[in-house]
Specification:
By secondary structure, the chain is an alpha/beta fold. It contains seven helices and six strands, in the order E-E-H-H-H-E-H-E-H-E-H-E-H. Helices cover about 35% and strands about 15% of the residues.
Length: about 210
């Protein structure tokens, strides 16, 4: 089992914690991690892009000039793609870019990135993260105490004081244990997580 230090909000080490190998010591699968990232980005796409083909552009029903004898190249419509105002050759149409991954694949990808963060010492465990009031300055102080700049802060419960305090901090995102995903864990350099959140993740994914 991996053993990590536990810190308080002042950045002082107050203990240690053993992490489950089933979650934080899993075999790293780069293929599944890549697939999970591609799926996350694909599912975010609106897929509403649209352009008109020559069949959909208004006008152009009449042949602009006769076939022969004018000296011009033959033309059948003023809405052909080579004309100004003409249709697009292979026009994009609305489509759904999303695709599905198996539940086992998703879990394996998540375990892979969590394991890589632990291996790279980019996984910081806090004994607790509580704020008495919404105070961005105090939240920044906590990050500075931990020597963290770009972080994904994972909470066990929806703590509005922490979430609202972190909302305006650049390069920081908060998430609950049931909303973490492979893309965010990779995007942010460090994962800052509470002990309770670690226990919940181990219970769900072990």
């Amino acid at each position: 089992m991996a053993n990590v230090a536990v810190y308080n909000m002042e950045g002082n080490e107050v203990g240690s914690m053993e992490l489950s190998d089933a979650v934080f010591g899993a075999k790293i699968s780069e293929h599944l991690v890549h697939m999970a990232v591609v799926q996350y980005l694909a599912n975010k796409r609106q897929g509403t892009q649209k352009a008109k083909t020559r069949a959909e552009v208004r006008g152009g029903g009449r042949k602009p000039w006769k076939q022969k004898g004018t000296g011009h190249a033959r033309q059948g419509s003023i809405r052909a793609p080579q004309w100004k105002g003409g249709g697009v050759v292979f026009a994009p149409t609305p489509r759904d870019y999303s695709f599905k991954m198996n539940k086992k694949e998703k879990r394996a990808a998540l375990k892979s990135v969590l394991t890589s963060k632990v291996n790279d010492s980019k996984f910081i465990v806090l004994d607790e993260l509580k704020l008495d009031e919404i105070k961005t300055k105090r939240f920044v102080e906590i990050l500075n105490n931990l020597k963290v700049q770009k972080a994904l802060v994972v909470l066990n419960d929806t703590d509005q004081n922490v979430i609202l305090s972190a909302r305006n901090v650049p390069k920081v995102k908060t998430a609950q244990t049931n909303t973490i995903n492979v893309y965010d864990i990779l995007k942010y350099d460090t994962v800052v997580i509470t002990k309770d959140a670690v226990a919940t993740i181990e219970e769900v994914y072990a």
